[in-house]
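in:
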């Protein structure tokens, strides 16, 4: 056998040539050959899920803040619903009680507004990680070192800018470093997952979330390396600690729910792709007069920028832009056919037909009879071909039609090995991100 499946340093299953197994980034030295033994007894899963009613949690039996050594947390997760005790302050990692009288660390939701009719949660980006461990006041209580679920790039900058945003059903992948930990933050509380701890050190404020992996590292020492698994002998679902050969199951009222078995190179349909201002896709489709499109999506954080399309410039092409007035403008040829009002995280169905008629949410908005410009440009998603700045936006699907109404691009969001793509069902082609960083991924469509 020339090839073998193995896990890399991000816990992703990859295929390697046996002759390359000594490559430093591969988990296959003597220590880590042992780490693969658990696959004889466990099926590796994409993720495990806690539910909105189950009250699942894990006590790791590990004191995260027992000293001031730097801590690195590598985690991939998705929040998809209310926890058992409601949504506000639902917690994924807790190393302190919630009474406010203790120091420590939590990673939780801090909801400023919860829409009870739609279950959409918005957060304000003022709640960022307290990197310097300086105290601040929250509802009259002193807090230290709290990480809130704000989309952040790995350098710590906000990914969404100011304002509010929704975050339910999007996959986050973080590397968080807690450094310069002062003596005042040391405590004697075990680290818990999927819940917070009340003033009596009992679990509450459970969270409904998918967990893809979680690793704690102090200095160069891996303390916990947790991956989702299902035990083959009895189908019990939990987290397996590769570093310590220990299987953690739910200690709450119900068991964890298994995600799909991890399969390398399998393509999964997801609900949407989300750009945080750096990601975009080139469809390679060159539009001419009579081309049209159908797209469902919208911006997540308003900026005056182009959302989709191609042309010599945005006033001479085919596509969608956002305006200074806080609206969408739809351009066909040299005509801005219409402007429609716009709000963060409100999605719309945009459609332009071959005769230049424009519809938004199935409502007629006008018609253009002007010609498309000549030029070497293609249709881009999340930005226009005449600009280099992508928009903060989500797209659920994108179709492009030629001047004979033939479907020439039928793009749907997918993920492969944790990376987001647009998959064209016309040519069976994966279109990758042409920008930087990775897309935020919507939840799997099962």
């Amino acid at each position: 056998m020339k090839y073998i499946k193995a896990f890399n340093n991000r816990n992703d299953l990859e295929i390697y040539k046996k002759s390359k197994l000594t490559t430093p980034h591969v988990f296959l030295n003597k220590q880590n050959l042992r780490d693969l033994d658990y696959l004889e007894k466990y099926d590796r899963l994409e993720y495990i899920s806690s539910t909105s009613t189950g009250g699942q949690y894990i006590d790791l039996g590990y004191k995260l803040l027992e000293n001031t050594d730097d801590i690195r947390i590598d985690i991939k997760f998705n929040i998809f619903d209310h926890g058992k005790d409601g949504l506000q302050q639902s917690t994924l990692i807790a190393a302190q009680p919630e009474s406010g009288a203790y120091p420590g660390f939590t990673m939780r939701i801090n909801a400023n507004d919860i829409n009870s009719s739609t279950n959409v949660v918005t957060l304000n980006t003022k709640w960022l990680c307290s990197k310097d461990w300086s105290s601040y006041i929250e509802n009259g209580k002193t807090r230290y070192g709290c990480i809130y679920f704000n989309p952040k790039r790995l350098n710590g900058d906000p990914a969404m800018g100011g304002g509010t945003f929704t975050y339910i059903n999007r996959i986050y992948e973080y590397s968080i470093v807690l450094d310069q930990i002062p003596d005042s933050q040391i405590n004697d509380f075990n680290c818990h997952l999927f819940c917070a701890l009340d003033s009596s050190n009992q679990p509450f404020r459970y969270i409904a979330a998918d967990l893809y992996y979680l690793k704690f590292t102090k200095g160069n020492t891996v303390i916990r390396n947790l991956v989702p698994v299902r035990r083959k002998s009895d189908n019990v679902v939990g987290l397996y600690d590769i570093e310590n050969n220990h299987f953690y199951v739910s200690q709450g009222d119900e068991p964890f729910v298994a995600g799909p078995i991890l399969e390398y190179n399998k393509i999964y349909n997801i609900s949407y792709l989300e750009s945080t201002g750096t990601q975009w896709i080139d469809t390679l489709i060159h539009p001419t007069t009579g081309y049209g499109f159908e797209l469902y999506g919208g911006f997540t954080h308003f900026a005056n920028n182009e959302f989709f399309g191609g042309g010599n410039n945005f006033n001479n092409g085919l596509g969608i832009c956002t305006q200074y007035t806080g609206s969408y403008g739809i351009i066909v040829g040299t005509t801005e056919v219409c402007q429609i009002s716009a709000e963060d995280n409100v999605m719309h169905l945009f459609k332009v037909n071959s005769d230049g008629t424009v519809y938004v949410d199935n409502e007629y908005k006008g018609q253009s009879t002007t010609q498309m410009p000549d030029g070497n440009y293609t249709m881009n998603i999340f930005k226009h071909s005449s600009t280099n700045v992508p928009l903060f936006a989500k797209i659920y699907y994108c179709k492009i039609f030629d001047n004979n109404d033939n479907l020439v691009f039928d793009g749907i969001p997918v993920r492969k090995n944790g990376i987001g793509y647009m998959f064209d069902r016309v040519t069976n082609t994966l279109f990758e991100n042409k920008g930087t960083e990775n897309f935020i991924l919507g939840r799997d469509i099962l």
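note: The two ends are 34 Å apart (CA to CA).
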